[in-house]
Amino acid sequence: MSGGDMAKPLLGHRSTEGDPSVVPAAGRTIGVLGSGDFARSLAIRLVCSGFKVVVGSRNPKRKACLFPSAAEVTFQAEAVKKTDVIFVAVFREHYTTLCDLADVLAGKILVDVSNNTEINHHRESNAEYLASLFPACTVVKGFNVVSAWTLQSGARDGNKQVLICSNSQEAKRTVAEIAQVMGFTPVDMGCMSSACEIENIPLRLLPAWKIPIFLALGLFLCFFTYNLVRQVIHPYIREQKNKFYKIPVEVVNTTLPCVAYVMLSLVYLPGVLAACSQLYYGTKYRRFPDWLDQWLQHRKQIGLLSFFCAALHAVYSLCLPMRRSHRYQLIETAVKQAMEKKMNIWVEEEVWRMEIYISVGIIALGLLSLLAITSLPSIANSLNWREFSFIQSTLGFIALVISTLHTLTYGWSRAFDENQYKFYLPPTYTLTLLVPCTVILAKIAFSLPCIQHRLLRIRRGWEKGRYVKFVLPSATGEYSSGETSSNV
Ligand code: NAP
Protein backbone atom coordinates (compact mmCIF):
# COMPACT_ATOMS: atom_id res chain seq x y z
CA MET A 1 0.00 0.00 0.00
CA SER A 2 1.34 3.42 -0.85
CA GLY A 3 2.17 5.93 1.80
CA GLY A 4 -0.52 8.13 0.31
CA ASP A 5 -3.16 5.51 1.01
CA MET A 6 -2.06 5.25 4.61
CA ALA A 7 -2.18 9.00 5.00
CA LYS A 8 -5.82 9.15 3.90
CA PRO A 9 -8.37 9.08 6.71
CA LEU A 10 -10.15 5.73 6.92
CA LEU A 11 -13.47 7.53 7.24
CA GLY A 12 -13.70 10.28 4.73
CA HIS A 13 -16.17 13.09 5.35
CA ARG A 14 -18.44 12.02 2.52
CA SER A 15 -21.88 13.39 2.25
CA THR A 16 -24.30 10.62 1.29
CA GLU A 17 -27.28 12.93 1.04
CA GLY A 18 -28.83 12.96 -2.40
CA ASP A 19 -26.50 10.25 -3.71
CA PRO A 20 -28.66 7.14 -4.34
CA SER A 21 -25.63 4.97 -5.10
CA VAL A 22 -24.32 5.36 -1.57
CA VAL A 23 -26.11 3.15 0.94
CA PRO A 24 -25.91 4.62 4.45
CA ALA A 25 -24.12 2.26 6.85
CA ALA A 26 -27.03 1.88 9.29
CA GLY A 27 -30.05 0.35 7.59
CA ARG A 28 -28.10 -1.70 5.07
CA THR A 29 -28.26 -5.49 5.08
CA ILE A 30 -25.27 -7.32 6.54
CA GLY A 31 -24.68 -11.03 6.09
CA VAL A 32 -23.17 -13.36 8.68
CA LEU A 33 -21.94 -16.83 7.75
CA GLY A 34 -22.01 -19.19 10.72
CA SER A 35 -24.29 -19.42 13.71
CA GLY A 36 -21.83 -19.88 16.58
CA ASP A 37 -21.03 -17.65 19.56
CA PHE A 38 -19.39 -14.90 17.53
CA ALA A 39 -22.06 -14.90 14.81
CA ARG A 40 -24.80 -14.64 17.45
CA SER A 41 -23.19 -11.74 19.31
CA LEU A 42 -22.41 -10.00 16.04
CA ALA A 43 -26.01 -10.37 14.83
CA ILE A 44 -27.38 -8.97 18.12
CA ARG A 45 -25.00 -5.98 17.95
CA LEU A 46 -25.79 -5.31 14.28
CA VAL A 47 -29.55 -5.46 14.89
CA CYS A 48 -29.19 -3.11 17.90
CA SER A 49 -27.19 -0.72 15.70
CA GLY A 50 -29.97 -0.49 13.10
CA PHE A 51 -28.72 -2.94 10.45
CA LYS A 52 -30.78 -5.62 8.77
CA VAL A 53 -29.10 -8.95 9.40
CA VAL A 54 -29.25 -12.13 7.41
CA VAL A 55 -27.53 -15.18 8.88
CA GLY A 56 -26.35 -18.03 6.68
CA SER A 57 -26.31 -21.42 8.38
CA ARG A 58 -26.02 -25.02 7.27
CA ASN A 59 -29.00 -25.78 9.46
CA PRO A 60 -31.13 -22.62 9.69
CA LYS A 61 -34.20 -24.31 11.23
CA ARG A 62 -32.25 -25.51 14.25
CA LYS A 63 -30.29 -22.29 14.74
CA ALA A 64 -32.99 -19.66 14.12
CA CYS A 65 -34.19 -19.71 17.75
CA LEU A 66 -30.72 -18.62 18.93
CA PHE A 67 -30.88 -15.30 17.07
CA PRO A 68 -32.97 -12.19 17.70
CA SER A 69 -36.27 -12.30 15.84
CA ALA A 70 -35.24 -9.25 13.76
CA ALA A 71 -32.43 -11.28 12.18
CA GLU A 72 -33.29 -13.57 9.28
CA VAL A 73 -31.71 -17.01 9.54
CA THR A 74 -31.56 -18.91 6.28
CA PHE A 75 -29.34 -21.20 4.22
CA GLN A 76 -25.85 -19.94 3.42
CA ALA A 77 -26.47 -19.42 -0.32
CA GLU A 78 -29.75 -17.57 0.33
CA ALA A 79 -28.11 -15.27 2.88
CA VAL A 80 -25.17 -14.43 0.65
CA LYS A 81 -27.48 -13.43 -2.23
CA LYS A 82 -29.19 -10.78 -0.07
CA THR A 83 -26.15 -8.71 0.85
CA ASP A 84 -22.84 -7.27 -0.33
CA VAL A 85 -21.01 -7.36 2.99
CA ILE A 86 -20.62 -10.75 4.66
CA PHE A 87 -18.93 -11.51 7.97
CA VAL A 88 -17.34 -14.95 7.83
CA ALA A 89 -17.82 -16.18 11.42
CA VAL A 90 -16.43 -19.62 10.70
CA PHE A 91 -13.10 -21.17 11.72
CA ARG A 92 -10.29 -21.19 9.13
CA GLU A 93 -10.33 -24.98 8.82
CA HIS A 94 -13.92 -24.80 7.53
CA TYR A 95 -13.31 -22.11 4.89
CA THR A 96 -13.02 -24.74 2.15
CA THR A 97 -16.59 -25.92 2.93
CA LEU A 98 -17.74 -22.48 1.72
CA CYS A 99 -16.17 -22.95 -1.73
CA ASP A 100 -19.54 -24.06 -3.17
CA LEU A 101 -20.69 -20.48 -2.62
CA ALA A 102 -17.87 -19.00 -4.73
CA ASP A 103 -20.19 -17.92 -7.55
CA VAL A 104 -22.73 -16.13 -5.34
CA LEU A 105 -19.95 -14.56 -3.29
CA ALA A 106 -18.18 -13.08 -6.34
CA GLY A 107 -17.77 -9.29 -6.13
CA LYS A 108 -18.77 -9.09 -2.47
CA ILE A 109 -16.90 -7.95 0.62
CA LEU A 110 -15.91 -10.76 2.99
CA VAL A 111 -14.96 -9.75 6.53
CA ASP A 112 -12.59 -12.27 8.05
CA VAL A 113 -13.05 -12.25 11.86
CA SER A 114 -11.07 -15.40 12.58
CA ASN A 115 -8.32 -15.94 15.11
CA ASN A 116 -5.69 -18.64 15.45
CA THR A 117 -4.76 -20.74 18.44
CA GLU A 118 -1.02 -20.02 18.19
CA ILE A 119 1.05 -17.00 17.18
CA ASN A 120 2.11 -17.26 13.49
CA HIS A 121 0.30 -20.60 13.33
CA HIS A 122 0.10 -20.68 9.54
CA ARG A 123 2.49 -19.43 6.88
CA GLU A 124 -0.15 -17.06 5.52
CA SER A 125 -2.76 -15.22 7.59
CA ASN A 126 -6.34 -16.54 7.70
CA ALA A 127 -7.52 -13.47 5.77
CA GLU A 128 -4.96 -14.05 3.00
CA TYR A 129 -5.99 -17.71 2.89
CA LEU A 130 -9.66 -16.70 2.56
CA ALA A 131 -8.73 -14.24 -0.20
CA SER A 132 -6.86 -17.02 -2.05
CA LEU A 133 -9.95 -19.27 -1.87
CA PHE A 134 -12.24 -16.50 -3.12
CA PRO A 135 -10.22 -14.40 -5.59
CA ALA A 136 -13.40 -12.74 -6.96
CA CYS A 137 -14.18 -11.28 -3.49
CA THR A 138 -12.65 -8.40 -1.58
CA VAL A 139 -11.45 -9.57 1.82
CA VAL A 140 -11.19 -7.26 4.83
CA LYS A 141 -9.59 -8.41 8.07
CA GLY A 142 -11.33 -7.02 11.14
CA PHE A 143 -13.26 -7.51 14.38
CA ASN A 144 -11.07 -10.46 15.48
CA VAL A 145 -9.69 -8.40 18.40
CA VAL A 146 -13.25 -8.01 19.75
CA SER A 147 -14.62 -10.92 21.77
CA ALA A 148 -18.15 -12.26 21.43
CA TRP A 149 -18.78 -10.96 24.95
CA THR A 150 -17.66 -7.40 24.06
CA LEU A 151 -19.84 -7.49 20.98
CA GLN A 152 -22.88 -8.41 23.03
CA SER A 153 -22.29 -5.96 25.86
CA GLY A 154 -21.68 -3.25 23.28
CA ALA A 155 -18.66 -0.98 23.11
CA ARG A 156 -19.37 0.49 26.55
CA ASP A 157 -16.92 -1.83 28.25
CA GLY A 158 -13.48 -3.00 27.23
CA ASN A 159 -11.48 -2.08 24.18
CA LYS A 160 -13.35 -0.01 21.61
CA GLN A 161 -10.79 -0.38 18.85
CA VAL A 162 -11.41 -2.55 15.81
CA LEU A 163 -8.25 -3.05 13.75
CA ILE A 164 -8.96 -3.26 10.02
CA CYS A 165 -6.80 -4.04 7.00
CA SER A 166 -7.45 -4.79 3.36
CA ASN A 167 -5.97 -4.21 -0.06
CA SER A 168 -9.14 -2.32 -1.03
CA GLN A 169 -9.48 1.16 0.41
CA GLU A 170 -13.19 1.26 -0.50
CA ALA A 171 -14.00 -2.08 1.19
CA LYS A 172 -12.02 -0.98 4.25
CA ARG A 173 -14.02 2.24 4.41
CA THR A 174 -17.33 0.31 4.21
CA VAL A 175 -16.34 -2.00 7.09
CA ALA A 176 -15.01 0.95 9.09
CA GLU A 177 -18.38 2.71 8.72
CA ILE A 178 -20.18 -0.40 9.97
CA ALA A 179 -17.78 -0.62 12.95
CA GLN A 180 -18.36 3.01 13.77
CA VAL A 181 -22.15 2.69 13.65
CA MET A 182 -21.79 -0.30 16.03
CA GLY A 183 -19.97 2.01 18.47
CA PHE A 184 -16.41 0.85 17.82
CA THR A 185 -13.38 2.85 16.77
CA PRO A 186 -11.97 1.58 13.47
CA VAL A 187 -8.19 1.69 13.20
CA ASP A 188 -6.63 1.48 9.73
CA MET A 189 -3.79 -1.03 9.84
CA GLY A 190 -2.99 -0.72 6.14
CA CYS A 191 -2.97 -3.47 3.52
CA MET A 192 -3.62 -7.19 3.80
CA SER A 193 -0.03 -7.99 4.77
CA SER A 194 -0.91 -6.59 8.25
CA ALA A 195 -3.51 -9.35 8.75
CA CYS A 196 -0.95 -11.68 10.32
CA GLU A 197 -0.02 -9.01 12.89
CA ILE A 198 -3.73 -8.34 13.64
CA GLU A 199 -4.38 -12.06 14.07
CA ASN A 200 -1.50 -12.34 16.54
CA ILE A 201 -2.74 -9.50 18.78
CA PRO A 202 -5.40 -11.47 20.73
CA LEU A 203 -2.84 -14.24 21.34
CA ARG A 204 -0.12 -12.13 22.91
CA LEU A 205 0.04 -12.51 26.69
CA LEU A 206 0.51 -9.14 28.39
CA PRO A 207 3.15 -7.86 25.92
CA ALA A 208 3.57 -4.53 27.73
CA TRP A 209 3.99 -6.26 31.11
CA LYS A 210 6.86 -8.65 30.35
CA ILE A 211 9.74 -6.28 31.19
CA PRO A 212 8.08 -4.75 34.31
CA ILE A 213 7.14 -8.22 35.64
CA PHE A 214 10.68 -9.54 35.12
CA LEU A 215 12.03 -6.39 36.77
CA ALA A 216 9.74 -6.85 39.79
CA LEU A 217 10.58 -10.55 40.05
CA GLY A 218 14.31 -9.81 39.76
CA LEU A 219 14.15 -7.18 42.50
CA PHE A 220 12.02 -9.47 44.67
CA LEU A 221 14.52 -12.29 44.32
CA CYS A 222 17.51 -10.05 45.15
CA PHE A 223 15.91 -8.45 48.22
CA PHE A 224 14.41 -11.76 49.38
CA THR A 225 17.82 -13.46 49.30
CA TYR A 226 19.41 -10.48 51.07
CA ASN A 227 16.74 -10.49 53.82
CA LEU A 228 16.90 -14.27 54.12
CA VAL A 229 20.64 -14.11 54.77
CA ARG A 230 20.25 -11.32 57.33
CA GLN A 231 17.13 -12.55 59.16
CA VAL A 232 17.39 -16.35 58.95
CA ILE A 233 20.82 -17.60 57.84
CA HIS A 234 22.84 -15.23 60.05
CA PRO A 235 21.14 -16.16 63.40
CA TYR A 236 21.30 -19.84 62.39
CA ILE A 237 25.06 -19.78 61.71
CA ARG A 238 26.16 -17.30 64.38
CA GLU A 239 23.79 -18.14 67.25
CA GLN A 240 22.42 -21.57 66.23
CA LYS A 241 18.91 -20.08 66.41
CA ASN A 242 16.17 -21.57 64.24
CA LYS A 243 14.39 -18.62 62.59
CA PHE A 244 13.21 -20.44 59.48
CA TYR A 245 9.57 -19.85 60.49
CA LYS A 246 10.14 -16.22 59.45
CA ILE A 247 10.42 -17.07 55.75
CA PRO A 248 6.71 -17.16 54.69
CA VAL A 249 5.58 -13.93 56.36
CA GLU A 250 8.34 -11.81 57.91
CA VAL A 251 10.96 -12.16 55.18
CA VAL A 252 8.34 -11.71 52.46
CA ASN A 253 6.93 -8.69 54.29
CA THR A 254 10.33 -7.02 54.54
CA THR A 255 10.98 -7.76 50.86
CA LEU A 256 7.69 -6.42 49.44
CA PRO A 257 8.14 -2.78 50.58
CA CYS A 258 11.71 -2.79 49.21
CA VAL A 259 10.41 -3.85 45.78
CA ALA A 260 7.48 -1.39 45.93
CA TYR A 261 9.73 1.52 46.93
CA VAL A 262 12.48 0.86 44.38
CA MET A 263 9.91 0.24 41.62
CA LEU A 264 8.23 3.56 42.43
CA SER A 265 11.57 5.33 42.08
CA LEU A 266 12.14 3.50 38.78
CA VAL A 267 8.98 5.18 37.47
CA TYR A 268 10.62 8.59 37.90
CA LEU A 269 14.28 7.70 37.16
CA PRO A 270 13.89 7.50 33.34
CA GLY A 271 12.34 11.00 33.38
CA VAL A 272 15.41 12.25 35.24
CA LEU A 273 17.74 10.51 32.77
CA ALA A 274 15.76 11.96 29.85
CA ALA A 275 16.05 15.46 31.35
CA CYS A 276 19.82 14.96 31.88
CA SER A 277 20.17 13.88 28.24
CA GLN A 278 18.20 16.93 27.04
CA LEU A 279 20.30 19.27 29.21
CA TYR A 280 23.55 17.67 28.06
CA TYR A 281 22.77 17.76 24.35
CA GLY A 282 20.80 21.00 24.59
CA THR A 283 17.92 19.71 22.46
CA LYS A 284 14.74 17.69 22.74
CA TYR A 285 14.96 16.53 19.14
CA ARG A 286 17.69 13.96 19.75
CA ARG A 287 16.32 10.41 20.05
CA PHE A 288 16.77 8.71 23.40
CA PRO A 289 18.61 5.40 23.36
CA ASP A 290 16.25 2.43 22.80
CA TRP A 291 16.58 1.14 26.38
CA LEU A 292 15.51 4.55 27.76
CA ASP A 293 12.66 4.76 25.26
CA GLN A 294 11.42 1.33 26.33
CA TRP A 295 11.78 2.25 29.99
CA LEU A 296 9.75 5.46 29.51
CA GLN A 297 7.00 3.46 27.80
CA HIS A 298 6.77 0.95 30.66
CA ARG A 299 6.42 3.47 33.50
CA LYS A 300 2.69 2.82 33.95
CA GLN A 301 3.16 -0.92 34.38
CA ILE A 302 6.15 -0.41 36.73
CA GLY A 303 4.02 1.98 38.82
CA LEU A 304 1.10 -0.46 38.97
CA LEU A 305 3.41 -3.27 40.10
CA SER A 306 4.83 -0.94 42.76
CA PHE A 307 1.27 -0.33 44.00
CA PHE A 308 0.57 -4.08 43.95
CA CYS A 309 3.62 -4.80 46.15
CA ALA A 310 2.77 -1.90 48.50
CA ALA A 311 -0.82 -3.16 48.89
CA LEU A 312 0.45 -6.68 49.67
CA HIS A 313 2.87 -5.19 52.22
CA ALA A 314 -0.05 -3.40 53.91
CA VAL A 315 -2.10 -6.61 54.13
CA TYR A 316 0.88 -8.64 55.40
CA SER A 317 1.64 -5.97 58.03
CA LEU A 318 -1.98 -5.96 59.25
CA CYS A 319 -1.81 -9.75 59.63
CA LEU A 320 1.51 -9.80 61.57
CA PRO A 321 -0.16 -9.80 65.05
CA MET A 322 -2.34 -12.79 64.03
CA ARG A 323 0.66 -15.12 63.92
CA ARG A 324 1.25 -17.64 66.70
CA SER A 325 4.96 -16.73 66.77
CA HIS A 326 4.02 -13.13 67.48
CA ARG A 327 1.75 -14.13 70.40
CA TYR A 328 4.42 -16.40 71.92
CA GLN A 329 7.02 -13.64 71.65
CA LEU A 330 4.65 -11.14 73.25
CA ILE A 331 3.92 -13.43 76.20
CA GLU A 332 7.61 -14.29 76.52
CA THR A 333 8.58 -10.60 76.69
CA ALA A 334 5.80 -9.88 79.22
CA VAL A 335 6.92 -12.76 81.46
CA LYS A 336 10.57 -11.65 81.23
CA GLN A 337 9.67 -8.10 82.18
CA ALA A 338 7.49 -9.30 85.08
CA MET A 339 10.35 -11.46 86.37
CA GLU A 340 12.76 -8.54 86.08
CA LYS A 341 10.08 -6.42 87.83
CA LYS A 342 10.19 -3.84 85.03
CA MET A 343 7.00 -1.78 85.29
CA ASN A 344 7.65 1.09 82.93
CA ILE A 345 8.30 -0.23 79.44
CA TRP A 346 7.16 2.91 77.59
CA VAL A 347 9.89 4.27 75.29
CA GLU A 348 8.78 7.68 74.09
CA GLU A 349 11.08 7.77 71.03
CA GLU A 350 9.95 4.33 69.85
CA VAL A 351 6.29 5.29 70.29
CA TRP A 352 6.71 8.42 68.16
CA ARG A 353 8.76 6.59 65.54
CA MET A 354 6.06 3.95 65.12
CA GLU A 355 3.20 6.49 65.01
CA ILE A 356 4.94 8.51 62.28
CA TYR A 357 6.04 5.36 60.41
CA ILE A 358 2.49 4.00 60.20
CA SER A 359 0.90 7.34 59.38
CA VAL A 360 3.24 8.18 56.47
CA GLY A 361 2.94 4.59 55.25
CA ILE A 362 -0.85 4.92 55.04
CA ILE A 363 -0.57 8.27 53.24
CA ALA A 364 1.94 6.81 50.75
CA LEU A 365 -0.37 3.85 50.05
CA GLY A 366 -3.32 6.23 49.59
CA LEU A 367 -1.37 8.27 47.04
CA LEU A 368 -0.21 5.13 45.23
CA SER A 369 -3.85 3.96 45.02
CA LEU A 370 -4.78 7.31 43.48
CA LEU A 371 -1.97 6.99 40.92
CA ALA A 372 -3.04 3.43 40.09
CA ILE A 373 -6.72 4.35 39.69
CA THR A 374 -6.00 7.36 37.48
CA SER A 375 -3.77 5.29 35.22
CA LEU A 376 -6.78 3.16 34.19
CA PRO A 377 -7.80 4.19 30.66
CA SER A 378 -11.46 4.86 31.58
CA ILE A 379 -10.41 7.27 34.38
CA ALA A 380 -7.42 8.74 32.51
CA ASN A 381 -9.71 9.56 29.56
CA SER A 382 -11.92 11.67 31.81
CA LEU A 383 -8.96 13.86 32.90
CA ASN A 384 -7.45 16.67 30.88
CA TRP A 385 -3.70 16.71 30.29
CA ARG A 386 -2.98 19.10 33.19
CA GLU A 387 -4.99 17.03 35.69
CA PHE A 388 -3.36 13.81 34.52
CA SER A 389 0.18 15.22 34.69
CA PHE A 390 -0.52 16.81 38.12
CA ILE A 391 -1.62 13.45 39.54
CA GLN A 392 0.96 11.25 37.83
CA SER A 393 3.91 13.61 38.04
CA THR A 394 3.44 15.91 41.05
CA LEU A 395 1.44 13.61 43.34
CA GLY A 396 3.60 10.68 42.20
CA PHE A 397 6.74 12.53 43.24
CA ILE A 398 5.11 13.43 46.58
CA ALA A 399 4.30 9.73 47.03
CA LEU A 400 8.00 8.95 46.47
CA VAL A 401 9.04 11.55 49.08
CA ILE A 402 6.49 10.23 51.60
CA SER A 403 7.63 6.64 50.94
CA THR A 404 11.17 7.83 51.66
CA LEU A 405 9.98 9.24 55.01
CA HIS A 406 8.25 5.91 55.67
CA THR A 407 11.52 4.07 54.98
CA LEU A 408 13.61 6.49 57.07
CA THR A 409 11.28 6.25 60.08
CA TYR A 410 11.39 2.47 59.74
CA GLY A 411 15.19 2.43 59.68
CA TRP A 412 15.65 5.28 62.19
CA SER A 413 19.15 4.96 63.67
CA ARG A 414 19.72 1.34 62.68
CA ALA A 415 22.22 2.31 60.02
CA PHE A 416 24.51 3.59 62.82
CA ASP A 417 24.18 0.46 64.98
CA GLU A 418 27.03 -1.94 64.26
CA ASN A 419 24.92 -4.93 65.49
CA GLN A 420 22.66 -4.37 62.49
CA TYR A 421 25.49 -5.24 60.08
CA LYS A 422 24.97 -9.00 59.67
CA PHE A 423 27.92 -10.60 57.84
CA TYR A 424 28.94 -6.96 57.23
CA LEU A 425 25.72 -6.50 55.24
CA PRO A 426 24.03 -3.15 55.97
CA PRO A 427 20.30 -3.06 56.88
CA THR A 428 18.15 -3.57 53.74
CA TYR A 429 16.46 -0.18 54.01
CA THR A 430 19.79 1.62 53.45
CA LEU A 431 20.12 -0.13 50.07
CA THR A 432 16.57 0.71 49.01
CA LEU A 433 17.22 4.41 49.66
CA LEU A 434 19.90 4.68 46.96
CA VAL A 435 17.80 5.07 43.79
CA PRO A 436 14.86 7.02 45.32
CA CYS A 437 17.22 9.53 46.99
CA THR A 438 19.07 10.00 43.69
CA VAL A 439 15.74 10.72 41.96
CA ILE A 440 14.62 13.13 44.69
CA LEU A 441 17.96 15.01 44.66
CA ALA A 442 17.91 15.21 40.86
CA LYS A 443 14.34 16.54 40.89
CA ILE A 444 15.34 19.17 43.46
CA ALA A 445 18.32 20.12 41.27
CA PHE A 446 16.01 20.44 38.22
CA SER A 447 13.78 22.81 40.16
CA LEU A 448 16.67 25.29 40.66
CA PRO A 449 15.77 28.35 38.54
CA CYS A 450 18.89 28.22 36.32
CA ILE A 451 18.38 24.55 35.38
CA GLN A 452 14.59 24.71 35.27
CA HIS A 453 14.69 27.68 32.89
CA ARG A 454 17.07 25.92 30.48
CA LEU A 455 15.05 22.70 30.61
CA LEU A 456 11.81 24.54 29.93
CA ARG A 457 13.35 26.33 26.95
CA ILE A 458 14.65 23.04 25.53
CA ARG A 459 11.21 21.45 25.93
CA ARG A 460 9.66 24.35 24.03
CA GLY A 461 11.95 23.67 21.08
CA TRP A 462 15.09 25.73 21.85
CA GLU A 463 18.32 24.08 20.72
CA LYS A 464 21.93 24.64 21.75
CA GLY A 465 24.03 26.26 19.01
CA ARG A 466 21.09 26.67 16.60
CA TYR A 467 20.72 30.08 14.95
CA VAL A 468 17.17 31.43 15.01
CA LYS A 469 15.61 34.22 13.07
CA PHE A 470 14.37 37.03 15.24
CA VAL A 471 12.20 40.05 14.53
CA LEU A 472 12.71 43.25 16.51
CA PRO A 473 10.67 46.46 16.38
CA SER A 474 12.88 49.40 15.32
CA ALA A 475 12.80 52.81 17.00
CA THR A 476 10.44 54.00 14.27
CA GLY A 477 8.01 51.23 15.04
CA GLU A 478 8.98 49.27 11.90
CA TYR A 479 10.26 45.72 12.21
CA SER A 480 13.80 44.69 11.28
CA SER A 481 14.99 41.11 11.12
CA GLY A 482 18.37 39.54 11.77
CA GLU A 483 19.97 36.35 13.04
CA THR A 484 21.35 35.47 16.44
CA SER A 485 22.47 32.43 18.31
CA SER A 486 19.61 31.33 20.54
CA ASN A 487 21.87 30.19 23.36
CA VAL A 488 23.51 33.57 23.84
P1 NAP B 1 -18.38 -21.53 16.93
O1 NAP B 1 -19.26 -21.17 18.06
O2 NAP B 1 -17.79 -22.89 16.90
O3 NAP B 1 -19.16 -21.30 15.57
C1 NAP B 1 -18.61 -21.66 14.32
C2 NAP B 1 -19.73 -21.74 13.30
O4 NAP B 1 -19.17 -22.05 12.05
C3 NAP B 1 -20.71 -22.85 13.56
O5 NAP B 1 -21.74 -22.44 14.40
C4 NAP B 1 -21.21 -23.22 12.19
O6 NAP B 1 -22.47 -22.62 11.94
C5 NAP B 1 -20.22 -22.58 11.23
N1 NAP B 1 -19.67 -23.54 10.27
C6 NAP B 1 -19.68 -23.36 8.93
N2 NAP B 1 -19.11 -24.41 8.32
C7 NAP B 1 -18.77 -25.28 9.27
C8 NAP B 1 -18.17 -26.57 9.26
N3 NAP B 1 -17.80 -27.15 8.13
N4 NAP B 1 -17.97 -27.19 10.43
C9 NAP B 1 -18.31 -26.59 11.60
N5 NAP B 1 -18.86 -25.38 11.67
C10 NAP B 1 -19.12 -24.74 10.50
O7 NAP B 1 -17.18 -20.49 16.82
P2 NAP B 1 -17.19 -18.93 17.20
O8 NAP B 1 -16.69 -18.77 18.57
O9 NAP B 1 -18.48 -18.32 16.82
O10 NAP B 1 -16.04 -18.38 16.21
C11 NAP B 1 -16.28 -18.19 14.85
C12 NAP B 1 -15.13 -17.39 14.24
O11 NAP B 1 -15.03 -16.14 14.95
C13 NAP B 1 -13.78 -18.08 14.42
O12 NAP B 1 -13.00 -17.89 13.28
C14 NAP B 1 -13.15 -17.36 15.60
O13 NAP B 1 -11.73 -17.36 15.55
C15 NAP B 1 -13.70 -15.96 15.41
N6 NAP B 1 -13.73 -15.18 16.67
C16 NAP B 1 -14.44 -15.62 17.74
C17 NAP B 1 -14.46 -14.87 18.92
C18 NAP B 1 -15.26 -15.31 20.12
O14 NAP B 1 -15.23 -14.59 21.16
N7 NAP B 1 -15.96 -16.40 20.06
C19 NAP B 1 -13.74 -13.67 18.98
C20 NAP B 1 -13.03 -13.23 17.87
C21 NAP B 1 -13.04 -14.00 16.71
P3 NAP B 1 -23.62 -23.45 11.15
O15 NAP B 1 -23.68 -24.81 11.80
O16 NAP B 1 -24.86 -22.66 11.38
O17 NAP B 1 -23.21 -23.49 9.73
TrEMBL record:
UniProt source species: Pavo cristatus
Pfam families per UniProt: F420_oxidored, Ferric_reduct
Protein origin, superkingdom: Eukaryota
Regions crossing the membrane: 211-229, 259-281, 302-323, 356-376, 388-409, 429-451
Gene3D superfamilies membership: NAD(P)-binding Rossmann-like Domain
Disordered: region residues: 1-20
Domain Pyrroline-5-carboxylate reductase catalytic N-terminal: 29-116
Membrane association type: Multi-pass membrane protein
Cofactor: heme b; FAD
Record protein name field: STEAP3 metalloreductase
Ferric oxidoreductase domain mapped to chain residues: 259-401
